Amino acid sequence: MMTGQFNQCAFDDCCKGTELFSLKECNKDTISHLRFFKCGTDMNIPESLLILNRAGLGLRLSNVIDKYICNQHRQQYGLQWKRKKRTCCHPLHDIAKSAKVARGINLTQSREIWLKLNLNIAVGSGVCRRCIESHKNELQIGTHMKEELRGYSFWFKSNLSPIKLETSIDTLKKVVSNLGTNGMITSKVDDLNESLDTLKLHLKNEFQNHLSSESDCNEHCIHLALSEKGCEHVHTTTCQPCSRMYQIKDELQNLMTSNFPDINSKEKEEFEHDISVSTEKIWAWRDHLIRTVNQDSCKKDLLQNLQSHEVLIIADWAMKYIPQTFRETQSEWFGKQGISWHMICALVRKPQSENDSNDEDDKNYDIYSMVHIVEEQKQGWHIVSQIFSSAFKMLKSIHPHLRDVYIRSDNAGCYHALPLLSYLWKFRNDLSLNVKQYNFSEAQSGKDLCDSRTGTCRLHMLNFINEGNDITNGMEMKQALESHGGIRNTYISVVTVASETQPVLYGQIKNLQISKFNNFSFEDEGMIAYKTYGIEGELVKATDMTRISNKLMIFDTNLTIGDPKQPEEKPASKKAIKQNSTFPCFEPDCLLVFKKEDQLITHISIGKHVFDNEKIDNISDTCKRLWYSKCQDIRFLNKPLMSTVGSEQMQVQTNNNYSQAPGYALKKRKKAVRFSPKVKEYLIVLFNVGEESGKKPSPYTVSKQMRNETDLQGDRIFSPSEWLSHQQIRSFFGNLCMKKQTVDKSKDKSVKLVKIEDNQEDDEDLQNVLSSLEANEHNTILSEIVSVLTV
User: Fold this and answer.
1) In this structure, are residues 9 and 64 in contact, taking their beta carbons and an 8 Å threshold?
2) Residue boundaries of the structural domains of the chain
3) pTM of the full predicted structure?
């Protein structure tokens, strides 16, 4: 709580309340309050979020989270809120029918009403049973409110991901805010903040839609960004928001050279470090988006040109399945070992008859899934090669007319490995299907189809457990997935490994760094490797490929893959047939709407979206466009000191100053920089103190603490080049833990064997200790958040 003449209640300009609270301090428990109104939610909504929702500001958190509220409005919108109507308040309610309230609207439903109808219905407002069903059919969308609330609860938690766009933008805005409090002109502060917000929206929403292989715009040309030789066409236009990235960095660096009397040398040094690191992360995110669009175009081109005798498969290791029983004790819940299972999704074009149209739409594909369950075996390239061989054989038995296969997966080490590529090249014509290409997707994309099928399998297994069954091994997992007729077009196999022998290559290929290449084509002359899809391939000669793959065998006798069971054909349910609601695409900017659920699933699997920026404008965007057209003439009469962020072009001179070299978006290998002895000693001391006291330091806290460590003279102990991120600190602590465990195991192995085999009680105590350590770490993070919120 605080009072002051410079703060006022943000919910009423004429409010005379003297007792003010920061919205960050509004953190009372709301579970009992929501239970009283029968909101039916299992989420503990923060009090501040509940207040903002009932005040109509639930979607403007970043604008009001730093504001204040008086005690009267806090009670009015918070825990003493009362319903204004005793009848149903849902916008879809039919006045002619009964309006008896059955429950209260929860936060998810309130958010969905706002997004669909642009109406704010407060959490807790009454709703009848009929409107609850109408809401599910007409307004319910795929919003993950639990994840959103989890992100809101950790609002002030620092997350310095290498390519975290929002965090980098927020860091730059903090630097601008600090410069504003130390003497920078207010108009300049507002200008820079507006530019940063526009840049964030541009990179998140618009940038990917503007990219093309041969764009006239310098910043949107994929060929220029990913080709080291550049492109042949001329770039005649430029993008102001993209070029603004470089201008913002130059302006901030120039401001740091100005004379700010209230900023000492330590703060200035920290600001310069934040500016440099944050801008590099923003550019890394931009380069990541360019590579993502280019690699995704590979899938679209393959599907568009896929012939009836060809198949595209997408492979991915699913997250390990944790064994589960119908009823288990707390001691059984700890210390489980996950079961590995591999998912392959195959897209096959349906054969067309003569009467069919030539239009190649989404309905012409069949999707098949093949699940391979692997127990007690590492996820290496060798077992992946045998899984591919089994999947090819299975597809050939389903569709004998198939001849060629194209493979797509992520960049995991078991896929992006020279031994696997050598195996596929050597036996490209000896397997059940001829392997033509292997294409890798960019990080965080390309696996949506496998993830969707994995979720379906997990739900099927959960229903199997709820019937009173257990899943503790691979055979029970197969039994669960094949129960009740199995899953449509899904084939389950169990992989049994007799020994863990894995063949090795016979030598290496000089000057070939396989991690730099993401697309491979298998030809008789050799393997053609591309750094990015469709740009500048390099030939690896057949003689080299034959030499290194000399010891590889097509089949492994130590590995057995069981035969799958044919899934039953299930008719469509009556509920699905009678349902008249439409199914819009989950992609935010996609305009397509489907009448059937299977059409939507097929569309999402293929990823052929349709975008139209003008048609997807909401009311706010339309108003902005009208205002822009009215003020366009006036804007050119008054020349601003800084060019407008929303303009479409820049002067050619500005473009030349910020031009990029060809291939700027290609992945760059970072030089491995060793930690200085001073940094190592500092981290080891913190680790040992945590081991002795039981209160282990948080990597986030240590990362911030390193910046403020000083010696007896008040000078910094660590220079900015020695500052570490929380990921680096976590990795260093993890290595120390592994070394400590190795030393402990080597001291007395016999004692540990006795504990594991003869004394189950001690083993359970060990698991309880591990769980308590995790709980302590969780409580430490929560206490840090509370301390930040109460500052």
Assistant:
1) no
2) 20-153, 165-290+643-657, 321-526+554-561, 574-606, 677-789
3) 0.66
